[in-house]
Design goal:
The protein is α+β, with helices and mostly antiparallel strands. The protein contains 17 helices and 22 strands. The chain binds adenosine-5'-triphosphate. Pfam families: AAA, AAA_lid_BCS1, BCS1_N.
Length: 679
Amino acid sequence: MASPGALIRALRRITLRSGRSWQQVLKTLALLLRRLLGNPQVAELIRFIFLGTIVETGRVVGAKMVSTVNSFFLVKASFKKGELSYEWVSAYIDHHKVWNRSRTFRVVARNAEKMANRDLAISAVDGYPDAVYEPSDSEPELFHWRGRHWITISKDEKEGASSLTLQVWSRNRTVLDEFVQEARTFYRTSPQPPPKQAFDWSESLIVGHFNQADFSYDWVLDYLQSENVMADANEFTISTKQSDAGWNREDGKQLVRYVPSTNTKQRLRWRGHWLQVEFVIGYEDGNGRTSGGSINVLLHSCEKAVLSEFIEAARVHYTHASISRVTVHLTDNYGSWARAVTKNRRAFATLILPAGVKELLLADAQEFLASEEWYTFAGVPHRRGYLLYGEPGTGKSSTIHALAGELGLEIYFISLAAPGIDDYTLGRLIRDTPSRCILLIEDIDCAFPSREEDDDEPLLDAKGNPIPKELTPPLSQVTLAGLLNVLDSVASEEGRLTFATTNHIEQLDPALIRPGRMDLKIQYGLATSEQLEQMFARFYPYDDAADAEHGPSIGCYFSASGARLSAVELAALARAFAAAIPPARYSIAQLQGYLLSRKNEPEGALAGVAAWVVAQEEERREMEALKQKRRREAALRRVAEAAAEREGQTVREAASEREGQTEREGETAEEPSAKAEEA
Ligand SMILES: Nc1ncnc2c1ncn2[C@@H]1O[C@H](COP(=O)(O)OP(=O)(O)OP(=O)(O)O)[C@@H](O)[C@H]1O
């Protein structure tokens, strides 16, 4: 703004230039202004500007006053989707049917049965999805809460993100506090399942990840199945594999199972808490086993104690359920424990072994497990090794499985020749097993083959040609030193029973089977007469209570004449059966194969056994001849190789001899000329 001095100076300059006095200039300006104001359009414009200024000032002052009043009487809170608090308020206002008066909806197709507020659905109960009204970005709704408080609720959806805004008409925050608290309690105790969470709520809720490589995975899987957690699921994978976890388990005869689709979220109410369970599928290794999977359990709680309680419940359930089963843990191709398989427990009584063997083994293992304190006291490592050796099919593996069932222990099975198992992974696998279990190393000799056997039976390629030894892959990456190390390690001292089986004890390094590593060695032989008789009696028992009306059944067999065979007659047949077979010539597995073909005919089994023996002997001769032939071929091959090697050597020697001679002749030819040069 120009100062009065400057104005006077400007007027003076104008008067000087125009040659008029400044009063005359002022007069002219006043005249000009009057003429302008006299123009109605200019006057209208000036009035408009004046009025606009007044209205704008009024609006700003009014808004300021409203916000000041609001801040006195309105409490505002917003809830963003993805936050647990959004779910509380959302579920609570759904329950109070706040949106029922809404006039803007999004119509979707859902199962109305699963809705909290059925008023927003046109329920048809015809097995087809219902039309459901979902409040969309709508006008605010007034909620008269508890009949005392007015709450304005609005739903906003911007760029895919939803939020709820609450405005509580109140002087202070107390009403909002009460509202949020009530919504929270309602949500927590509601029988309505919470919506499936796709958000990371690990900051507000407890999330437990159970990895397939860990044993807790099996506990949780088993437990969740027993709780039928997946009953509420909408997405299934249909499986005909009876080993798959899923619905229809109760009825073992069902052909298909509904397996929860992987990466879907299932909900379950557990001891007053909601759980969300997600099954994450692993990847399948070359052997058809899966690994790398997990079960993620999201607990609607933030107390770690609830998770511990859940895990403990799963563990107890698993242990209890496995009383009638034996669990065998297997390794994957990467040297980790993969998912376990369970087998029905085999009764110890079904083992047919020479008198006293079963009792000795069971008593020894029981005594070992019961005397942990003594081992600590005596400073002796609390571990025990058993070596079961002998002919194939004589019951070594069966004994270990039956013993595991009897002692209530799980089996951790390691094959030293399996891919991915080396000294390092072997040590890790053993460290990862729990204390008090059976560690089973089957066919321990396969890992360290003897040299002679190698020479006798070379590996053949697809065309039947022998594979050169340097190209033959080693049977195991585990070294003897590595295995001994692991057997002696502290990890093996946790009350573990180590069982090793072999068909060739003579091929084992004495260091491997010395006491301290293998404390009890039991030989399994081919069936003795006594065992043969017992076996016959096991296949054809006599049961007085069995109903003879419906033909042969367990404990009830008939003779060729149609009369029921008595206990005495069956015993006589058993003796005759044993007498018809040369003792210590066949394994129980071989005889089992024969008897299985005559399940209900004890007399037929006896009648056919002589022919079976003849056929077995014939087969044995053929096998022996084949073996001899391969040995001869291997020997001839070695002779031929040696001859070729010798011939090659002779040729090389002759060539080098010729070379030497040529050189010598060259030297003698050069000599005279050299002498001539000298002269
Ligand atoms: N002593 C036995 N008592 C009862 N059943 C037996 C006995 N021996 C073998 N069998 C039966 O024969 C089959 C094979 O037995 P098992 O696998 O235990 O033999 P193995 O000695 O471990 O053989 P391999 O050395 O080849 O592993 C099983 O079905 C088992 O029921």
